[in-house]
Amino acid sequence: MRAQRASKPPEEPLLEFLEVMRRLRAECAWKRGQTHRSLARYLLEETHETLEAIDTGDADHLREELGDLLLQVYFHAVIAEESGEFTLDDVARDITEKMYRRNPHVFGPESAAPETAAEINEVWEAIKASEKQRTSVTEGLPTTLPALLYADKVLDRLSREPGVEPSPVVEQAPVVEPVETSAPAHDLGERLLALVAEARGSGIDPEQALRDAVRRRL
User: Fold this and answer.
1) Which of 79, 86, 98, 200 could link 90 by a cystine bridge, Cβ 3.0 to 4.6 Å?
2) Rounded Cα gap, residues 102 and 132, in angstroms
3) Is the dihedral of CA 118, 123, 126, 128 positive or negative?
4) Model pLDDT for residues 79-96, shown as the tens digit of each residue
5) How far apart are the first and last CA of the chain?
6) Confidence (pLDDT) at 67
7) Distance CA 190, CA 202 (A)
């Protein structure tokens, strides 16, 4: 019979979990056989389950799903650690440094700090653009994003392009007209894009709004 968890003094939970994942990689045949690529499907599943927990408003459910999501982060970090690519400390250090850079309203000179949420977001996006040095509005955007979220991201980036005139679809509310039978998919796509633009103008997350609308019908 395999020994149960040994009794020992309590550790920091995050450090203990890291040791648990290292041991599982060493002693569990299934976990030892996993790679970044083979784990990708589980990361996606856990992300969606976490979103569902947020929608339900159940704190216990959210706590559980965040733990499952954290497992995926640790799993990938331990795999990378074994091959000498990076460690969990590297992951934490990188995101900490990013937060320092992108939040000058908290960590920078107070005199230069933005005051409103909109100003804070503009500073974040400006710093991010400077760091990434992208050559197109779609660079770095996964094409596998949900369509509404992808459209929202593209419209947001277009609105920040210097010298680019805003598209009428961004400035105007959608005009709902009968769909042309000759090109129904094209026309419907244009109307959906217009709705995304309307949502952006109203400060609404179109992806969340659609999920909420479906939930109300159930």
Assistant:
1) 86
2) 13
3) negative
4) 999 999 999 999 999 999
5) 48
6) 97
7) 18
Q: What is the CA radius of gyration of the chain?
A: 23
pTM over 0.90: no
Is 127 in contact with 100 (CB distance < 8 Å)? Answer: no
Residue 106 contacts residue 115 (beta carbons within 8 Å): no
Give CA–CA dist 172/74, Å, rounded. 45
Cα–Cα nearest to 197, from 179, 175, 217:
175
Q: What CA–CA distance (Å, rounded) separates 55 from 13? A: 27
Question: Alpha helix locations (H) across the chain?
Answer: 13-27, 29-32, 36-56, 59-82, 88-102, 104-107, 117-132, 147-160, 168-171, 184-201, 206-217
Closest CA to 206 of 146, 158, 161: 146
d(CA 199, CA 191): 12
